[in-house]
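Re: beginner question about structure tokens

> Can someone show what the tokenized structure looks like for a real chain? I only ever see the sequence side.

Sure, here's an example I had lying around. Input first:
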Amino acid sequence: MNRLTTALQSTAALLLLSWQLLNPQVLWADGKTKAIQETAEWVMQRFGKQAVRETSASLAARLESYVARHGDDFLSAVRNVGPRAFQVVDEAGASYAGRAIGIMSRHGEKGIVNILSRPQALNAVARLGETAETALVKHPSIAEGVLEQFGMPAARALETLGAKGGRQLAILGQTGELAKLGRSDELLSVISRFGEKAMQFVWDHKGTLVISGVMAAFLANPEPFIEGTVQLTSDVATSVIKPLAEVPKVIAEQAASSINWTLVAIFLIAVVAGLSVWKFHRRQFVQCPGVK
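And the corresponding structure tokens:
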């Protein structure tokens, strides 16, 4: 009898395993249920019953409901910000819930403070995507204006900059100096490639870079300038400005080279001869008797 019972149990277990293997959705559902339960228990331990105000079982049931509506990323959002994730998603509404969950999953509490609670920041993320998220979290409150003006190139530049470089870029944007420099997209691309060094160089030489020829030379090959192997003021500004100052001289020289000096000499001789004849006749006329 015992042998028969054991054989039946083994057969049943084998059949169950075979059925699960043939139905991977069952295993997936079991895995999701386990993840939900583990998340509920973690939230209870991390934030306490007073903050959560519900049992582990009821929290797990609520998590299951939100995951069914918004996807598995909601669990990551909850692990990053705690029970507040429920409220944030509800306030975001159906249209923006997915974006809110993604921001909380990637940036946690900073995503709520620096993006989700700021309409201008949210608009930037809607236009520019995750790169703007990084810029806004890394440079809270100061990045919004630059992103509004210069878009994705600014987002990529801010992504590579630290606090000091981010402030410098924001100031250039606010004062209008970045727009005044011209070719801002290309300049921001250089900053995104070379980071803090490039930003400091632009900050230090913004007065010189406004000269279009200087800017063109810098953008054509920025690394030697940024690394200091080529001096912008002495090697570039002088070579750009000096030729411009010598343009009148060059024009005069070219004009002089095109003159037929033989004709000029003949003309001058004719003028001198004419003056001599005129003076001679004038003296004769004055010396005539009866002429007063």
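Each token stands for a local structural state, so reading them left to right follows the chain. The radius of gyration is 40 Å.
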